[in-house]
Amino acid sequence: MTAREIAGKVVDFDDEGFLSNPDDWNEEIAKVLAGEVGIDSLTDRHWKVIEFCRADFQARGEPPTLRRITKTGGVPTKELYSLFPKGPAKKVARIAGLGKPTGCI
Predict the structure, then answer these.
(1) How many other C-beta atoms lie within 10 A of the C-beta of residue 104?
(2) Distance of CA 38 to CAs 42, 61, 68, 89, 96, Å?
(3) Catalytic residue among 19, 101, 104, 105
(4) pLDDT one-digit tens code per residue, 25-73
(5) How do residues 22-31 score in pLDDT, each as one tens digit?
(6) Could you give the CA distance from residue 87 to residue 85 in angstroms, rounded to a whole number?
(7) Is 76 exposed, middle or buried (0-12, 13-18, 19+ CB in 10 A)?
(8) pLDDT value at position 103?
C-alpha cells in the first residue's frame, strides 16, 4: 500500500494504483486522478458515469464492469471509450475511487 497526499488529503492506494478505501474519495481527488490518466477536465458526461459507478458500487459491493456501465448506466460503448480512452472501466473505477473491476487486465 502507498499513501499519497492528493488535494490536501492523505489517501492510501493499492499496488495497482486504486484507492484502498472508497470512502476517502471526493471530487477534488477525482479531478487529480483524472489528470493522471490523461483526462484534463471532467465534463457532465464524465460525472454521470462516475456517479453511476459509485452508486452501483454502493448497491452491489463491487465496481461495475464495462458491460454493466453501458447496459445499466445508459452510456453507449463508443461514448464511454471517447470519455475514458484505452480501458474505460478501469479508468473510471480509478477516478471514481473504486477498486479494479472484475475481468480487467
Answers:
(1) 15
(2) 11, 27, 23, 15, 15
(3) 104
(4) 999 999 999 999 999 999 999 999 999 999 999 999 999 999 999 999 9
(5) 999 999 999 9
(6) 6
(7) exposed
(8) 66
Whether 104 is catalytic: yes
Distance CA 41, CA 21 (A): 24
Buried b (16+ CB within 10 A) or exposed e, 30-66: bbebbeebebeebeeebeebbebbbebbeeeeebbbb
Specify which residues 23 forms β-bridges with: none
How high is the pLDDT of residue 102?
77
Record the pTM.
0.92
Is there a contact between 53 and 63 (Cβ–Cβ < 8 Å)?
A: yes
CATH 3.30.1420.10 fits 2-95, yes or no: yes
C-alpha grid cell, residue 100: 479494479
